[in-house]
Amino acid sequence: MTELLKGTARDKALAPLVAQGWTENSHGTAIEKRFVFRNFVEAFAFMTRVALLAEKRDHHPDWRNVYRTVEVTLSTHDAGGLTVKDIELAQKMNEAAAYV
Amino acid sequence: MTELLKGTARDKALAPLVAQGWTENSHGTAIEKRFVFRNFVEAFAFMTRVALLAEKRDHHPDWRNVYRTVEVTLSTHDAGGLTVKDIELAQKMNEAAAYV
């Protein structure tokens, strides 16, 4: 099982994500971001790219799409909070959104 | 603008969808269904198929995906409720789910 991020390692991992619009949920067990694209085609192109990355890692987002917005929540459920898996997928999502 | 479904036409249009697991929201302005697949690949295959159909119709779902589940809400916002666009997309989603 992937270990929960704690202390300084957690702060260090989260800082660049927070700078790019990710926020922690109220329990500190997940990170969230709302991506906004120009239209549905771009939003779904982003989702398709992320879907492949997520399946490859066997680590999947909780996400909601409404037309050109995609609201994402990342958490590692079997660890009960944030792990390096969430940090890495969040970074990949930022890259994927920039690419669209 | 597509007209709101009312009265008998509305009942007639909804009946087959209700029989296939769709429910009305509490205000009667939307229909909802939770699709459950075997895994993420099948859930996202369904979403991809539906994305193409939705974009073609320029009528898009509000949907949330968590691993193998896809929760869908359909409504025609500029009409303030259910129209034939929602009925048709719901039918297409049932077909797409059966195909996966």
UniProtKB/TrEMBL annotation, chains A, B:
<dbReference type="Pfam" id="PF01329">
    <property type="entry name" value="Pterin_4a"/>
</dbReference>
<dbReference type="InterPro" id="IPR036428">
    <property type="entry name" value="PCD_sf"/>
</dbReference>
<dbReference type="InterPro" id="IPR001533">
    <property type="entry name" value="Pterin_deHydtase"/>
</dbReference>
<comment type="similarity">
    <text>Belongs to the pterin-4-alpha-carbinolamine dehydratase family.</text>
</comment>
<dbReference type="GO" id="GO:0008124">
    <property type="term" value="F:4-alpha-hydroxytetrahydrobiopterin dehydratase activity"/>
</dbReference>
<dbReference type="GO" id="GO:0006729">
    <property type="term" value="P:tetrahydrobiopterin biosynthetic process"/>
</dbReference>
<protein>
    <recommendedName>
        <fullName>Putative pterin-4-alpha-carbinolamine dehydratase</fullName>
        <ecNumber>4.2.1.96</ecNumber>
    </recommendedName>
</protein>
<keyword id="KW-0456">Lyase</keyword>
